[in-house]
Amino acid sequence: MKKKITKIGVLTSGGDSPGMNAAIRAVVRTGIYHGLEVYGIMRGYTGMVENEIVKLENRSVANIIQRGGTMLKTSRCYEFLTPEGRAKAYENLKKHGIEGLVIIGGDGSFKGAQIFSNEYDIPCVGLPGTIDKDIAGTDFTIGFDTAVNTAVEAIDKIRDTADAHDRLFIVEVMGRDAGYIALHSGISTGAEHILIPEKKTKVADLIASFQEKEKRKKLVNIIVIAEGDDFGGADELAKLLKKEIPQLDLRVCILGHIQRGGAPSCFDRVIASRMGYHAVECLLEERFNVFIGIVNNKICYTPINEAVKKKQRISDEWMKIVKILAT
Ligand code: ADP
To answer: Is 235 an annotated catalytic residue?
Structure first.
């Protein structure tokens, strides 16, 4: 019979997202509840390669549930992309007797986990920690709700000043491959146009829409654009519009990294806590190499290699709603 896992490691990797601390806390406390030793691996896969690994106790994760960022730090580890780097990582895990890993990160981190667990006999369980919500197999990712609420707060403020001057604002939000932050923040702030990587927008349609709005004196307009949209972000779109309609009173605001920081929302703390708990249960039940998702408010498990391949699809109905509501 296979030996039961007694020591696990937890790490946060890739882009940070608010709620990662709540997930770490849940993993540590659930692990200790089950009699496991739990080790924190610093700076993502870098800590595995460089042996920066510390034992965590219940008290180590006190007073962090409400904090953004990650107490374990995060990084992009280029050595882990190589077989030599992963061999070093494995040797370091062996030194500590770590037999299973919980990886909190995005699809890149999951890809790394998948490759590592194929090469070495270390089971991995993933928790989707990404503000972009760009992983299929879960309705929510840790950090998305906080990020989108930060964007909403900012866009509401921008609308006040846009309204005072009868101006058009182009607000760029995060989302290199996925437009969910743009879609949700745009709908909830009444944006006139939402431009996302998943849908192609024709310049001619945009211009026609502004000309039509100008005619009926609708002068305050907000465009929310995801950084990864085909236009190439807010600055590029502004240049294009200015060229076509020089009289447009137009300003650009790029929200940038404020979307990653700040205290996690209640929602993110709750899903991080649930997911962290279930990650440890997975390792104990030998449900290996999956990532934890929540679909229809139920915990579900998707093979970690599928998270790598799939992307979410945004239905045409979303865009129809945007159009109807922003007349
Ligand atoms: P995210 O997890 O936020 O998508 P990245 O794509 O930057 O972030 O991935 C985080 C880290 O995961 C990388 O720096 C690297 O260490 C590891 N990783 C990503 N892809 C691979 C891969 N193909 N092989 C091994 N490790 C990988």
So the answer is: no
> What's the 154 CA to ligand 1 centre distance in angstroms?
30
Cβ atoms < 10 Å from Cβ of 298: 8
Q: Which of 132, 145, 229, 268 is catalytic?
A: 132
Q: Is the distance from the beta carbon of residue 233 to the nearest atom of ligand 1 less than 6 Å?
A: no
| Residue 300 in contact with ligand 1 by CB distance below 6 A | no
Query: From the alpha carbon of 105, which atom of ligand 1 is closest?
Result: 2
Domain ranges in the chain with CATH number 3.40.50.460: 145-260
pLDDT value of residue 221: 87
Mind listing the pLDDT tens digit for each residue in 216-260? 777 678 999 999 999 899 999 999 999 988 888 899 999 999 999
Helices (H) and strands (E) in the chain, counts: 11, 11
Q: Which of 111, 116, 305 to mutate to test the pocket of ligand 1 (most atoms within 8 A of CB)?
A: 111
**Could you tell me which residues come within 8 angstroms of residue 223 by beta carbon, excluding any fewer than 6 positions away?**
168, 169, 170, 171, 191, 192, 193, 194, 195, 237
- With a 6 Å cutoff on the Cβ, whether 79 touches ligand 1 is no
| Average pLDDT score, the chain | 93
Query: Is pLDDT of 308 > 60?
Result: yes
Distance 131 CA to ligand 1 centre (A): 16
CATH architecture, domain defined by 7-143+264-307: 3-Layer(aba) Sandwich (3.40)
Cα separation, 184 vs 169, in Å, equals 17
Average pLDDT of the residues in 150-154:
98
Is the pLDDT score of 65 beyond 80?
A: yes
Choose the CATH number for 145-260 among 3.30.420.10, 3.40.309.10, 3.40.50.460, 3.30.1780.10.
3.40.50.460
Nearby residues of 89 by Cβ (< 8 Å), 6 or more positions away: 45, 48, 49, 80, 116
Ligand 1 center–CA 111 separation, angstroms: 6
Q: What is the DSSP letter of 81?
A: G
Question: Model pTM?
Answer: 0.95
CATH 3.40.50.450 occupies which residues in the chain?
A: 7-143+264-307
pLDDT tens figures, 40-60: 999 999 999 999 999 999 999
